[in-house]
Amino acid sequence: MTTASPPPASPPSASALPASPPSASAPVHQRLAELTAATIVPLQQGYLADRSPAVAALARLRRGAGREAGELPDLWNLVDTGPLHTRTDGSRALSERELTGAENALHAALTLWAFHQQSRGTPMHCRHTRDRPRGLGAAVRRLMPADGVDEPVRKRLVRAGTAPDLTTLTQRLRDLVALLRRDDIPLDYALLAGQLYTWQWPDGPAAVRRSWGRSFHEQARAAAAADENTTKNSHTDKDAS
Is the pTM of this model over 0.90? Predict the structure, then answer.
């Protein structure tokens, strides 16, 4: 893995990502997030529709989960990083280090999603919104009981957050994704891809850990608000009767 001067520390907001291919003038982490979504969405639709090409593509991608980008030649024509090389008037070309970091993050996000989606009949990549948080912290919080914290699960998230490099981080995330897959809990992989890019730069891990922590508490607040609305509706129904 290579490092260089850091990009903007804040990961992208998935709710703001357009469905179109990434524009060359956007920040690298945003372009990467957009490319991740543009790659996953049609594959996910095809897989859920049981289309053979998509099913075969996911099988190939799953073999790359937890492994370094470029390690499997079988994935070279499946993980298309071409849009990251696009340059338009007024934009700068990405440096070799930026391209390497983006390629590493894209590979990690796509292969983790393919592992997550395996044998699931509902989308495991879902866009993050304020009302429905889909960041990693929020997804891990949903693994826990509403009235408490599952300490072993929390420690898995903390352990991922202290990974020394991207390969180790991806391997530890795979363990968390296995739990999310078991419980049919989706994740925003576009958001995660941007975070994995940020992770590879100085001060990046700290920024990503903060994002995961905010996401964890964001899910708790969303769950509390949902419970409050349910209680209010229940009282309203009783009053009406």
Answer: no
